[in-house]
Amino acid sequence: MKKGFRFIVKASMLLIGAFFVFSSGFAQQFQTLDITNQLNPTNSHTHREKCGHVILEQKMEKEMGYFGSKPFFENWINDKIEDQKDTPQILFRANNDPILIPVVVHVIHNGEGEGQGTNVPVSQIEEQLRILNEDFQRLNADAANTPAEFLPVAGQINIEFILAKQDPSGLPTSGITRTAGSKSTYDPNTDASIIGQLIQWNPDEYMNMYVVPLVSPFIGYASFPVSDLPGLTGAPTSAITDGVVIDYRYFGIGGSAVSSSRGRTATHEVGHFFGLRHIWGDGGCGVDDFVADTPLQDNSNNTCSANASRFSCDSNDMIQNYMDYTPDACMNLFTQGQVERFEVVLANSPRRVTLINNRATEEPELAENDLAIARVLEPGEFECDPIINPSIEVLNAGQNTLTSGRIELRRNGTVLESKRVTFNLATGERFLVNFNEFTLLPNTNNIEFRITQANDVADLTVANNSRTINPILEQPVDLPYAQDLSTFPAPWAISNPDQLTTWEKRNLTISGTAQDLVSIRHYEYEAPGQLDYFISPIINLAEYPNAQLVFELAYAPYDQAGFTDGLIVAVSQDCGNIFDIANAPYDKSGVELQTTAATLDEFIPSNNTQFRTELVNLSEYADLGSVRLAFISENAYGNNIYIRNIRILPNEEFNYSLSVDEVRAPTPISDGALEVDSVALTNTGNLPINSFLFSTTNNNANLRTYVASGATIQPGQRFVITTPTAASTGKNGLKYVASNPNFDQNENNADSVMLFVVQSETTIPVPWRQNFNNATVLTPWQTINPETDAAAWSVSAVSNGEGPNNVAELNTILAGRSYWLGTPMFDLSVSRQASVFFDLSAGQVSPSTTLKVLASENGGNNYSEVWSVSGAELSTVSVGESNPNSAGDYTRKYVNLSDFAGTGKTQTRLAFLVEGGNESDSPIYLDNIELFLNANPEPVIPAVGMSVVYPNPARDFFNIAFNLSDFEDVTIQVISSTGALVQEIEYPMTLNQTYTFSTQLFSKGVFIINISSNTIRETRRLIIN
């Protein structure tokens, strides 16, 4: 049945699209899987979310897998609508009797008095229920404002929301509870479960409506219904979030509500509660809300005016619909198609069908004298101490005030104590009853509390008179402890709430050796959402405060989206009766739980490589003393989970750890052409790693998170990971974080590096000269301190010449930092040779302080060191600091760049880099940086604005060198002694070039050289021998 069903639904899953996007990472054969959208699902919408429904729907899909997905629900509801059309007599709107829905309003407040602030008054609650009833029944006064074109489809349902008349114990209630919350505000992204855990009445019997202070921009949200298909009747984990949550300022009218509230936020959210989606489908014109009589709409509407209208998707938008984001004053209708969905959900959906006209809508029928056992406090199902101090809580479930009761405590049918208790309890009031301590027997302990009298007469309401519990006396274990499966499950325990599939011992052949394992068969477990517990013996953390749980896990997900099983390791401090799942130290599902390739077949491990070592450090629970641990499986009808080699160690012997060593790409100054970032890491733990999380951000935004997997990295091994680049044009503050090696969830296993880079595609013509005199900033040159973005190179004014005179200055040098000064890109394909000269001035620096010249032939994406000096060789003066105003403190330096010139070298870039320094270093100055299209270390340089012809007389060749202030087009004429023009050549973009002429083109004798440009008119006499 399972395989056939799954291949049927696979086609539907294609409608959702893939959850993951793959990108290649080649170093160490790692692949990087982008999981950003899974971690930040709410980023998929551009409109400002007021309603948190989408968040709750995504949580439901995560918890229930495919069974909680939109395609699954819509397929189900469409089938039910068709069935309903074939049997119209079941339609609620054909029934004159109203549908009564019991509502309990939970006011979660911040401690104010009733009627103040978040603790809203009763009148505000009553107004909200009135508005709900009018809106759903279409008795709202503003129904008259529905546009004429939408009147034919306007719908109403004969439903009435009433405050519950009975509480879960069957006692009279006002239908309103008030609870001081644990937080001042609540976020649907993180706090939906917290709200339900504060207080919730059985969602099978009550529509739980919470009035809370929500974080902006949210003003409400609601849980979505689920289907009634087989296998889903076991309450899924999303039951704790079932209900409607409204911000107190948008609940009803009056009281603490804002003036613009007309109670339509609750109308909107109750629409979700009964199966409606946003009218624009949470998408554009191509996304539907699955209701035929609502027009397509490209986005939400957020405005309201006297004649409000909006046009999109080739039709008028139904902005008056309660399922839009229209302000309350302009909302006024549901459609008949939406009502049709209400009816299907109310007739079929779990936790909706059971609301209709149930006992909570009726006044309770109470016996005259009825004392009930509300709960057993001690003993629990598990006990760590044989001495029991029995305690129960009783309540008055009858009409009369109770002043006494008689209660028996029995063990294995024998009365240990019969106790008459006196009190003064009005209906619904509770009382704590303690009994004499007793000692548990070594074997069987059937403990019963039985009420026999109320007000000294027989209590005849037997249904709530007795509670039985069978406590098991647990024993602590010494550490180190290794589980012995020969006595499975003892000394461990199994809790199987639904009494179906649960943890079991299996013997399998793994890598040729028969091994015992603990497993649970989720592959055939058709009860999504169920939890099964495998509970450890007692561990005394007071004796072992740094204890560590170690086990090996094997899990291959079912190879279809939506069947996502989970595994939790939780801690109990009450001997295993209650486990703190919400704060579990280990909680994995999906790709985090996966240890081997996904499969469509039932997973049965056969090789040791399919197992991964898992660690749970217990030091944070040391102050709890004796605790128990539980492996808790979360079933999603996916695939089998296997555990072996379970050990509890006295100390944290093993650890997963990664260090982020360096960013290899991008470089601090580049053109941004690389499509991937490259980062080097080291496995600094003592276990092999084959997967981890890797995150990138740019300028504290654009978070991308990847799962890196595919290679095994041994302890101490260094490796490189590549991901799509996070950088963009301009300055980038890049952060790379490696965390959760092997998806380890213990603390202190993450490392990060921050790198600041500049990306620029700016180019300059060649040759070039930079004397920093024409501006007070370095642009188009770039400077950066990659480690912290601290001040780096800057333009500084000096007075060592006539007119404006600036230099590049590195004033402050700190330990552990580097300082880059980069040129724009330039094209050296025009010359087979090149060189750069620069003036350097520096005072005393530490021996490790180094100035390097780096060259790149690809825009700065890779650099090679072409020159460097350190320590005393860097200093240009013998003592103290150099004087940037003194020409004598500068030294002219030469660097040959011919390796970066020639064919194809069109994107050359230079960088001047200072590194290895510290706070004691003197400032460093650079000036008169000049690129030549030759590699002559001693070039002939004319005076500024002049030219020189040499050698003269010439034999084999002669040169004409220039030193112009800026680029000019130069014309050179060679004229014979007879006045004939022998040669004329134009040289555009001349700056500091030296042009060479062969004398073989000329006869021997005397020639006149005419040189002309915008600023030069020179004539030279040349002799050729």
Q: Kindly identify the CATH topology of the largest domain.
A: Collagenase (Catalytic Domain)
Spans of 5+ residues with little confidence (pLDDT < 50)? 1-28, 40-49, 63-68, 89-94, 228-237
> CATH architecture of the largest domain, please?
3-Layer(aba) Sandwich
CATH class value of the largest domain:
Alpha Beta
What value does the Rg take, in angstroms?
A: 40 Å
- Globular, elongated, flat, extended or rod-shaped: what is the shape? elongated
Mean pLDDT: 88
Strand content: 35-45%
Q: What is the helix content?
A: under 10%
Count of helical segments? 8
Termini, distance in Å? 103 Å
Widest sheet: strand ordering = 1-2-41-40-43-44-38
Derived from helix and strand composition plus strand pairing, the structural class reads: mainly beta
| Count of structural domains | 6
Major beta sheet summary:
7 strands, mixed
* CATH superfamily membership of the largest domain: Collagenase (Catalytic Domain)
Q: What is the total tally of β strands?
A: 62
